[in-house]
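Run: sequence + DGJ -> complex structure.
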Amino acid sequence: MNKKTVISMVVLTMMSALPTWAWKGDIVVSTPKTSLVLHANEGGSLRFSYFGEKLTSNEISQLKGTSMDLNQAAYPAFGQHDMLDLPAIQVLHADGQWTLYPTVDDVTTQTEGNATVTTITMTDKQYPVTLKVFYKAYSTVDMIETWTEISHREKKAITLKRYDSGHLAIPQGNLYMIHMHGNWNSETYPTCEPINPGLKVIRNTDGVRNAHNDAPEMMLSLDGKPQENKGRVIGAALCWSGNYELRVNNSSDNRYAHFYAGIDPQTTEYILEPKEVFTTPKLAFTLSNEGMSGVSRNFHRWARYEGWLHQGDQTRKILLNSWEGVYFDINEEGMFQMMEDIKSMGGELFVMDDGWFGDKYQRNDDVTTLGDWMVDKKKLPNGVASLVKKAKSLGIEFGIWIEPESSNTKSEFFEKHPDWVLQEKNRDLKLGRGGTQMLLDLCNPKVQDFVFRVVDDLMTENPEIYYIKWDANCALQNFGSNYLPANKQSHLYIEYHRGLIKTLQRIRAKYPKLVIQCCSSGGGRVNYGLLPYFEEFWTSDNNDPYQRVFIQWGTSYFFPSNAMAQHIAHSPYWNTGRTTPIKYRTDVAMSGRLGMELQPRKMTDEEREQSRRAINDYKPLRELIQLGNLYRLISPYDNEGIASLMYTNDAKSKAVLFAYRVQYLYNMKTPRIHLAGLDATKNYRLRELNVKVGSEPSPLNNKVFSGKLLMEQGLYLPLLKDYNSCVFELTAE
Ligand code: DGJ
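>> structure
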């Protein structure tokens, strides 16, 4: 054991009293308000003792030898694991043996930025397999990341059958789980259910868009049905952009439930060569006693300030994106017009979406041309340069859409490189969007280079491009790579993402300031596997403000508001047919990264004026909304007729409150909104924002209430018509 070894020596008498799990030493992983306690007897297995509110060293010693200590396997290995539980790791050795008995050799700690990394090294004494289990605990936020490195020195390759990122043991109680479910245009609907007996598996196998249906995050409430601002809740996010499996096992023992998360093993059997090191993705987890909103705030802080969202501590600009305004109908005059319009409403950035590229084939719909990233000179005779110049002359920024991981069967790219798309040997290609779309083989370094150059060429030719919208509209549906060897075809789902991440890292090294949106048919790639390389994501292709209240609600569980692109759209909305007032549309978009997604020329005067007002009122509050502390107050899912949320600054001197009517029946009960996160002793002046054009501000405008009244008595907001909404700024006096 080296100097940094943290396994303390144990009292010999205790060892003899408790021979199977005698305390050799505690491993205490600490964040400001939580402790994770593990223990290991040297030569024994690693045990999970406690995860909860921070303990003193005296309390940690009180756990010992009692049922307070959960004493569960911390990273259960098949064979060694408690037989009724599930393993977190399972390997097939070269000789056909398939058990693993890792025991602890060494525990070290080291400081890394704002965190302490604890490394527990374990080996199997019969088979030379080494596991390094890591816990990285932040001193700035209650967040711990865990992951595992697997390596071996067997003579031949071993097969990883299961290789979770992490496992948590949870004492039984009135446990609930909250996970996200949805689909294209209806992402992130939180589903809350009691943790009943049995095994619950949340899984995604799209290969590319891992957040459209289910999401790789989960909350676990320890104190019954979860509440937004009270109660102990664990939140966990698997930081991976590919297939995954989250498991909640409640079948083994009536004293514990277990949570596991990792890459989906059924779609990837990994052949690990001698001396190769396999590193699992990270699993980030937190515990808050301030309910689900507390968990969200921890994730938001961690993402913004600890590198999990690119330029996470920065605010974002107000933009107009061309897609729902003109779709593929791109031309120079039209783009100039949209730029002038967004500028006239106070916007700061214009983004040209799909349809601008192609030489031999024109991109007028979604069935051709992906891969041909040269400007369409028939549509844009003066190239991208003239658009950048025009934006500059207006004093706004310019952005552009790409979908660099895909091609269409009708494209110059595919004619030149038919072997650069994913395909199965001896089988026909399966085709995605438009019946013609295919995914490039990002396992291949030459293809990675091609994707890098899509960005690099654009940026080299037009260094003033400020923003890129990076889209991905195709699932991984051809299970074969021409690049991977025959015996490693089963690595495809992992190698694709490794290739993607390598490419993104290269782009980020060269273009650290470029703002890149992670779009994937809307919210398909909202995950912490990719966000370290992106400034924001397209929350959903669904811009109907009413449904957005629901979608944005669930998205905010794990993702911060400066990452959530929220755009004002046309009404009636194309996919729901719903007609909504412009006031509602602007109020809904204002609660995150504000933008627009429409043809300004089709707007009425009232719509323009309301949008101008929203943008104008948003700008001075941008920092508070985009970087503030989120408190969700009334959930749209709770059928109370109202949804409401707010942001505060750290000093609690400023806040902004949003409230939306989500159902109205005459004379239905209207709940008071109990604000949260304020200073009870301060007085706050209310100012109504984005006042409806043609109306007077609410009678609450300019009124002063104490934080205590706002939080305890609650505000009654008479939103007494369908699609009524309001936004208030609160300033402490
Ligand atoms: C899907 C995206 O989500 C949309 O916003 C738009 O960019 C289209 N792709 C373009 O094809």
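>> summary
Residues 323, 353-354, 366, 401, 471, 473, 519, 521-522, 538, 541 surround DGJ (CB under 6 Å). DSSP finds 14 helices and 36 strands in the chain.
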